[in-house]
Design goal:
By secondary structure, the chain is of the alpha+beta class. Helices cover about 20% and strands about 45% of the residues. The strands form two sheets. Strands 1, 2, 3, 4, 5, 6, 7, 8, 9, 12, 13, 14 and 15 form a 13-stranded mixed β-sheet that branches. It has a two-stranded antiparallel sheet with strand order 10-11.
């Protein structure tokens, strides 16, 4: 073997020794694959007499906070409040809808159905009650700079590495994750990490910066 060939082989082996650990670190675990509830869209309309909220999610059905990720299905939830409750209230949005159910505890009408997230800046909502129909434009609460659900999960994973690493075995995550878009004069995310003992570590994060605003421990 020539001196030149020996030097090339030595250099190649040394380079591989440096690069292989880096490649292994780059693979990591994709924690977003363990999301069992993802509320990605919220639409709002409100005036002096009508309040409408629409939430678009992908959620485990049936939902159970048990640390296991089941089959996830699209879900749209609509909530309507009126100053005077009619005997019947029907709603229509994006070709979906039906008769709403009144929930006395929350003092509002509710309806849910299976449909993909609308992913629009606004949706038209038609309410039919007392013999007439009225249409309202519910607007998305998202604005420029608001991160996605997946980015919110990654922010939390980066913030609390010991929690995520403690639930990771053989490149598999031993739990499930909930992430919900929230709105209160600004966008926020709730991220819940649930292990198989039903213990949940919950985080509230800023929807733009990803800053952790609060952390809470819950037992399911």
């Amino acid at each position: 073997m020539t001196r030149k060939r020996t030097l090339i082989l030595t250099f190649t082996a040394a380079l591989a020794a440096i690069l292989l650990p880096l490649i292994g670190c780059g693979r990591g675990v994709d924690y977003t694959k363990y999301i069992s509830e993802k509320r990605s869209e919220v639409y709002l309309y409100e005036d002096d007499s009508v309040s409408i909220k629409i939430q678009c999610s992908e959620k485990e059905q049936p939902f159970a906070a048990d640390g296991y990720v089941g089959d996830v299905s699209p879900l749209v939830e609509i909530f309507v409040s009126l100053p005077k409750n009619p005997e019947e209230l029907e709603v229509s949005v994006e070709g979906h809808g039906g008769e709403m159910n009144y929930q006395a505890v929350d003092k509002r009408f509710e309806l849910s159905f299976s449909a993909p997230p609308f992913k629009k800046d606004g949706v038209e909502v038609t309410l039919t009650f007392d013999g007439e129909s009225k249409t309202f434009n519910a607007l998305s609460v998202k604005y420029s700079g608001v991160m996605s659900c997946e980015q919110a999960v990654n922010c939390v994973a980066e913030h609390d590495k010991p929690l995520f690493e403690g639930l990771t075995k053989n490149n598999l995550f031993d739990g499930e994750i909930f992430v919900r878009l929230l709105y209160d004069e600004g966008c926020y995310y709730y991220v819940g990490v649930c292990d198989k003992t039903k213990h949940i570590t919950a985080f509230l994060i800023d929807g733009e910066s990803g800053k952790i605003l609060a952390t809470k421990s819950l037992q399911g």
